[in-house]
Amino acid sequence: MIAVVVAGLGGLGVVVWVLAKLGKALIKIAEVLAAAAVVVLALWLMVKAVVWALRQTLTHWRTSLAVVALLAWWGWSSLVVTVGVVVGVLTGWRLVSVASFDAWAGRYLRAWSRRWAIYAPKFPDWLHACGLSVTQDAAPVVVTLSPLGRALGRSRSRSQVRGEIPRVVGVRSGASWDEVRVRLVPGQKPEGFDEAARALASARGVARCQVRELTPNVVSIDFQRRNLLTDPVPCPDLSTLTGIHGGAVDLRRVWSGRTEYGQDWHVPLAGGHTLVAGATGAGKNSVMWCPLVSIAPAIRDGWVRVSGIDPKGMELAYGRGIFHRYAVTGTDAVAVLDDLIDAMNTRKTEFAGRVRSVPISPTHPLELLEFDEIGALTRYTDRKTRDAITERVALLTTQGRALGFTVRGYVQEPTKDTVPVRELFPRRICLRVSARKCPAARNKATGWC
User: Fold this and answer.
1) Three-state DSSP state, 139
2) Beta partners for 439?
3) Spatial contact of 274 and 291, defined as CB atoms under 8 Å apart
4) 28-69, pLDDT tens digit by residue?
5) SS3 369
6) CA distances, 419 to each of 76, 269, 321, 338, 390 (Å)
7) Mutual orientation of helices 197-204 and 120-129 as an angle, nearest 10°?
8) 248, 272, 392, 441: which has the fewest Cβ within 10 Å?
């Protein structure tokens, strides 16, 4: 028995000794693995931080440069003096010339400040409140409750709802509009933002908000801070145009006024037809007359020959002297259109097989037809005259572009029934209308702008 006990104790000692050695080895291995894990985690966090810093630097380079400049500045006193001098120079610049200041510095400073003071902190809440966030499926989360909680009948699980908010990728601030570029979340479409434009305007506290599609997954949500079109924009003074040669007028980029963004608005008169829709008093005559004033030298020198059809006999009568052809009644309108078609066929015979587009010159001028109240003669007249005018306008709009013939029509009701040839006008401008009959500007399929 004593021998057995001694042998057992000896074996137990050997086991304990072996286990102690194994424990020490495992501890060393664990220490090595822990150290390696710490090193790998530190390297991963470092790489992630570097990538994040580079991304932020490239995305927000102005803010990054400003932060780096502040951190690298030597001495707080010199920094305060420099900032004061810069603020003083900018303030003086703005007082002397607001236009140049806003063009070179003001709009960038305003966009930067509004992005970080208004849109970055508040825009996600606005989008969520307007229903423009995407909520993912609810994920069940198991919650362990105490016996007291189970006794009170509380649920053992709850649902955790996660949502994704479209991300702001850039802000531009002009004289009257803030343009906020937003990247959509998968599952969203630009039409949803267009429908919520009124709610977004109320959230921002502005009168107008419009949505423009930039790319399939990026839209620009524009907020109008003030209206630059409350006062009319004067046409160019004719005295300043007397020294310009008619051939120097760019007929594909004619100044026609200013946009609501405060930028010059240019429209092409050569190379396409235009249909302008707008209710009474919306400004169709401004769209008509301002380009004609801008191309006055070309009309004077014979580079442009203008024809007019004026069913009311009032709108175009102010400039009766510039119209080579002029009609008021339906019969006279058919005669004017026939004359234009004959001239187009003559030019077609002369240039067939030689060029793709007839070059504009005094010998072959741009034939520009101003057709006011086109709906009065394409619907609200007798059937024979209506069909004749519709047929002739269709011929001019389908064949006249390459031959140097341009039709510009104006209508109050831009429906297909009123203007059967509406789709033959590749460029369509919608002003204020009594009902939403003009598609939105971002609708590329219809061509309305």
Assistant:
1) strand
2) none
3) no
4) 888 888 888 888 999 999 998 888 888 877 776 767 777 777
5) strand
6) 70, 21, 28, 19, 8
7) 140
8) 248
Q: What is the DSSP string of 36-83?
A: HHHHHHHHHHHHHHHHHHHHHHHHTHHHHHHHHHHHH-S-HHHHHHHH
Q: Which residue has the tokens 């030019």?
A: 347
Is the pTM higher than 0.85? The answer reads no
Instruction: Report the relative pairing of strands 177-183 and 167-173 from DSSP bridges.
Output: antiparallel
CATH class of the domain whose range is 91-135+164-227: alpha beta
Q: Which CATH class is domain 238-430?
A: alpha beta
CA–CA distances in Å: residue 17 to residues 23, 164, 223, 408: 10, 59, 79, 103
**Biggest alpha carbon–alpha carbon distance for the chain:** 139
Helices 107-114 and 61-72 pack at an angle, to 10 degrees, of 90
Q: Which two tokens mark 374?
A: 């086109």
**Beta-strand relationship, 218-224 and 177-183:** antiparallel
State in Å, rounded, how far the first CA of the chain is from the last one. Answer: 108
pLDDT digits (tens, 9 = 90+) for 342-378: 999 999 989 888 888 899 999 999 999 999 999 889 8
Residue labelled with tokens 């236009």: 99
**Scanning the structure block, which residue is given the tokens 């002397």?**
96
Instruction: Give counts: helices (H), strands (E), the chain.
Output: 14, 16
Burial of 141 (0-12, 13-18, 19+ CB in 10 A): exposed
Give the helix ranges, DSSP H, for 218-362.
284-294, 296-300, 330-351
Task: Compute the distance between CA of residue 401 and CA of residue 94 in angstroms, rounded to an integer.
Answer: 47
Which single residue is written with the structure tokens 């009959």?
A: 437
Say how far apart CA 160 and CA 139 lie, in whole Å: 5
